[in-house]
């Protein structure tokens, strides 16, 4: 109990320390060092407690007193020492802490930041002509009221450069009477912004006396700024703003005289841009390959633009690896310009070592993006760092990322909140996307993010920060010297033979992207996350009681949990099991994973050699998602499962020789079923005829992809709550049931490469509904060929 009490005390001390840090700033090294000591000692204490609990669960007796638990003494002593250090700083911080003014926020000012020099900013100009045209139209537009024009985008994308080009653009110079440039950055000081504005004004107005500024308070300075901006048509650039609160505090100093004045605002935070002007904002995109190569070429070869033709192909490959971020392109170009001689071999070497070159310029590259990370609230930092778990260019499905965050314990419910963990996690993801730290790689028709990823430069920052803070250790070489014992999370992105022998017993999460050396040692008792690929699992996996997530590649065999005729207790915490073979799905496996929420089964080509047997999943009362992939021939696989009533999503792929009426009779029995997807499923018959009794009460999404369906006889009563109907490559289907237009909840019908007659029937349904005043239903037709 004393140990648990100390864990709680240290957590409270850490929170107190962070609250203090809002008011004051220690040196960066001291903050990181102390926070790291607290984090390590808390983690070690949690490990000892959980290992003891694990021993108790396994049947070892617990005895009171300190002697039987001497292994806890070093942790307790370390906690005592760390606690004293924290309390000493909290009580004696006068000589160690730099006081900030009351109107400041903690952060490093990029205005005085050597990370990105003016020369580097000037180099980032290629590919901004289209952006400049858009900004120019907004700034010189006909509206007379004060318009807030916003530019948003990730760090290093060229927001400040675009603003500077607009600021210096000759037509804009002729349009406005007075120009003001203020830089906000993370370190916001209201008085400094006012002084910066007045210094700009004083250079253009003779009636401003700069000598009196020091005698004025903030209110007087603000009045003076307003007074000088009331008459002329002004353009004020507010560069690098980070929060809504900052905008609220400075927006009042810009008078609206209905004379066409403008404020141009740049920010990394999309939500800040939208907050400043909800009607429209300009989001900068990464450069395409042509403009990336032009920027690289112009920087390396300067004004002559004359380059050896043999370098163009490799130069474009280098530019492509920079992934459209001008900051990286400029840094790499600077490196290439110093490379002598400029030969094909030397440029090939740069292409191979691009990551190392970027890492060797931490101030210019990683430091710039680090500002975005350090500005994050603490709840979002582990979610962002977890993106380093995945290899380069890896696209992760949104639902999977959310489940991983929940399993890792990154998602916290606020007191009194009625949101589910999934809803909170989705809000976290939207926040990180808004901050331009995570990129939406794929989107659904309704704008929801289907898959996401991260820029390689941000990923490199994640890896360095995660290693430095002991958040995660990533193995990127096939021969690591050692595995760090204080790490709980590991990502294995290169093959390591017998790698499991290197990992500590306290490992919580392992992301395995190669099959060698898998971690099935019973000593790794606290493991909860295990995404791996393409192997046969050993029976020892059943000893990992804390596993919550297993993702396997292909039809992986999962052995029975029975050892020597004794049934192992199973994995009671397992929520997702992805990619196991049907042959390994025994009733023992089902009963040993009672809390599954997602189950994905593969039926392999060898399945027709396996005798028919029924798999009863009715005991999985928490199962919400069930998917079947048939990789070989098996007649009517729908019949071999008993489905639990809890299912909300069912997906069948490559199922053959069923009859359409079985789809109705089987799945209308699931009262909570919301999504039904049939992909490459070929039935014995060609007509799907639904009766009045065939009602999918809760179904919201129905997808048919490559079916052999010719006629579909159904009414609106069969699908009373359907929202989306998706038909892909329905090459035989004659028409969509006309009565579907009467489904009051139906929002969209999507057709991909279907017959013209089907497309026409969808258009007719939409037109009929529009004539009746129903503008909710939309038809989307995507066709790459015609009949």
Summary?
The chain has 787 residues and is α/β, with parallel strands linked by helices.
List the helices and strands and how they pair.
Elements lengths: L1 H22 E2 L2 H30 L15 H19 L6 E2 L18 H6 L5 H11 L7 E6 L6 H10 L1 H6 L2 E6 L6 H13 L15 H12 L4 E8 L2 H7 L11 E6 L2 H7 L5 E2 L5 H13 L10 H10 L4 H13 L5 H9 L1 H6 L6 H9 L6 H5 L10 E2 H11 L12 H14 L4 E5 L5 E5 L2 H13 L4 E3 L13 E4 L16 E4 L16 E3 L17 E8 L5 E2 L2 E2 L8 E6 L5 H5 L6 E6 L11 E2 L8 E6 L10 E2 L6 E5 L2 E3 L1 H8 L7 E5 L2 E2 L3 E3 L11 E5 L5 E3 L10 E5 L19 E5 L3 H16 L6 E5 L5
Helix pairs in contact: 1-2, 1-3, 2-3, 5-6, 8-9, 12-13, 12-14, 13-15, 17-21, 19-20
Describe it.
The protein is an alpha/beta fold. Among the domains are: 2-99, no CATH class; 118-283, P-loop containing nucleotide triphosphate hydrolases (Rossmann fold, 3-Layer(aba) Sandwich); 289-359, Helical domain of apoptotic protease-activating factors (Helicase, Ruva Protein, domain 3); 376-460, Arc Repressor Mutant, subunit A (Orthogonal Bundle); 659-787, Leucine-rich repeat, LRR (right-handed beta-alpha superhelix) (Alpha-Beta Horseshoe), CATH 3.80.10. 35% of the residues lie in helices and 17% in strands. The protein has 24 helices and 32 strands. The strands form 9 sheets. An 11-stranded parallel beta sheet has the order 14-15-18-19-21-23-25-28-30-31-32, with helices on both faces. The chain is globular.
């Amino acid at each position: 109990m004393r140990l648990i009490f100390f864990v709680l005390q240290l957590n409270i001390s850490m929170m107190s320390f962070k609250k203090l840090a809002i008011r004051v700033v220690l040196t960066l090294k001291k903050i990181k060092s102390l926070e790291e000591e607290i984090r390590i000692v808390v983690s070690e204490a949690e490990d000892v407690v959980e290992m003891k609990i694990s021993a108790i669960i396994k049947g070892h007796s617990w005895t009171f007193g300190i002697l039987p638990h001497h292994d806890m003494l070093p942790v307790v002593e370390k906690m005592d020492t760390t606690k004293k250090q924290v309390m000493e700083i909290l009580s004696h911080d006068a000589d160690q802490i730099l006081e900030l003014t009351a109107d400041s926020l903690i952060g490093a000012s990029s205005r005085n930041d050597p990370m990105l020099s003016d020369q580097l900013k000037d180099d980032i100009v290629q590919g901004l002509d289209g952006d400049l045209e858009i900004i120019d139209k907004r700034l010189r537009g006909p509206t007379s009221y004060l318009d807030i024009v916003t530019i948003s985008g990730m760090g290093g994308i060229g927001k400040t450069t675009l603003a500077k080009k607009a600021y210096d653009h000759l037509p804009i110079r002729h349009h406005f009477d007075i120009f003001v440039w203020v830089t906000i950055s993370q370190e916001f000081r209201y008085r400094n912004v006012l002084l910066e504005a007045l210094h700009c004004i004083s250079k253009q107005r003779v009636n401003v006396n700069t000598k009196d500024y020091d005698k004025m308070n903030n209110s007087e300075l603000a009045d003076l700024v307003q007074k000088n901006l009331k008459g002329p048509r002004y353009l004020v650039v507010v560069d690098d703003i980070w929060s809504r609160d900052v905008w609220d505090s400075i927006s009042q100093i810009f008078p609206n005289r209905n004379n066409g004045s403008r404020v141009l605002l740049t920010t990394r935070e999309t939500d800040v841009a939208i907050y400043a002007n909800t009607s429209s904002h300009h989001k900068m995109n990464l450069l395409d390959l042509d403009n990336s190569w032009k920027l690289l070429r112009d920087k390396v070869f300067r004004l002559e633009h004359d380059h050896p033709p043999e370098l163009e192909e490799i130069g474009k490959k280098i530019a492509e690896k920079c992934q459209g971020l001008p900051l990286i392109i400029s840094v790499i170009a600077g490196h290439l310009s110093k490379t002598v001689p400029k030969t094909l071999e030397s440029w090939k070497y740069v292409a191979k070592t691009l990551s190392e070159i970027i890492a060797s310029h931490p101030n210019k590259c990683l430091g710039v993006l680090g500002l975005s990370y350090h500005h994050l609230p603490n709840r979002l930092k582990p979610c962002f760092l977890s993106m380093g778990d995945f290899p380069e260019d890896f696209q992760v499905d949104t639902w999977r990322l959310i489940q991983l965050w929940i399993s890792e314990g990154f998602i916290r419910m606020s007191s009194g909140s009625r949101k589910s963990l999934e809803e909170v996690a989705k809000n976290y993801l939207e926040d990180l996307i808004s901050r331009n730290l995570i990129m939406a790689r794929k989107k659904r028709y309704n704008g929801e993010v289907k898959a996401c990823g991260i820029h390689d430069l941000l990923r490199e920052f994640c890896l360095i920060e995660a290693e430095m803070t002991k958040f995660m250790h990533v193995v990127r070489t096939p021969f690591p010297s050692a595995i760090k014992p204080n790490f709980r999370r590991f990502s294995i992105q290169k093959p390591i033979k017998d790698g499991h022998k290197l990992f500590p017993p306290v490992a919580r999460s392992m992301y395995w992207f190669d099959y060698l050396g898998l971690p099935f040692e019973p000593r790794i008792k606290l493991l909860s996350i295990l995404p791996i690929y393409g192997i046969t699992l050993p029976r020892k996996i059943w000893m990992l009681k804390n596993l919550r997530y297993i993702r396997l590649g292909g039809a992986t065999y999962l052995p029975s949990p029975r050892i020597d005729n004794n049934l192992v207790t199973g994995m009671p915490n397992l929520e997702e099991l992805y990619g196991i073979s049907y042959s390994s799905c025994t009733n023992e496996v089902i009963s040993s994973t009672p809390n599954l929420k997602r189950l994905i089964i593969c039926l392999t080509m060898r399945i027709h050699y396996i005798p028919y047997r029924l798999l009863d999943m009715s005991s999985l009362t928490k199962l919400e998602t069930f998917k079947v992939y048939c990789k070989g021939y098996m007649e009517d696989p729908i019949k071999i499962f008993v489905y639990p009533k809890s299912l909300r999503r069912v997906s069948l792929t490559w199922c053959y020789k069923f009859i359409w009426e079985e789809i109705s009779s089987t799945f209308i029995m699931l009262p909570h079923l919301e999504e039904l997807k049939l992909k490459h499923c070929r039935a014995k018959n060609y007509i799907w005829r639904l009766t009045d009794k065939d009602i999918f009460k809760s179904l919201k999404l129905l997808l048919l992809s490559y079916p052999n369906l010719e006629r579909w006889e159904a009414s609106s009563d069969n699908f009373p709550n359907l929202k989306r109907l998706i038909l892909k490559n329905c090459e035989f289907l004659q028409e969509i049931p006309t009565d579907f237009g009467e489904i009051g909840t139906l929002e969209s019908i999507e057709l991909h490469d279907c017959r013209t007659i089907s497309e026409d029937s969808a258009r007719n349904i939409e037109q009929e509904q529009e004539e009746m005043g129903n503008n909710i239903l939309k038809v989307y037709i995507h066709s790459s060929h015609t009949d």
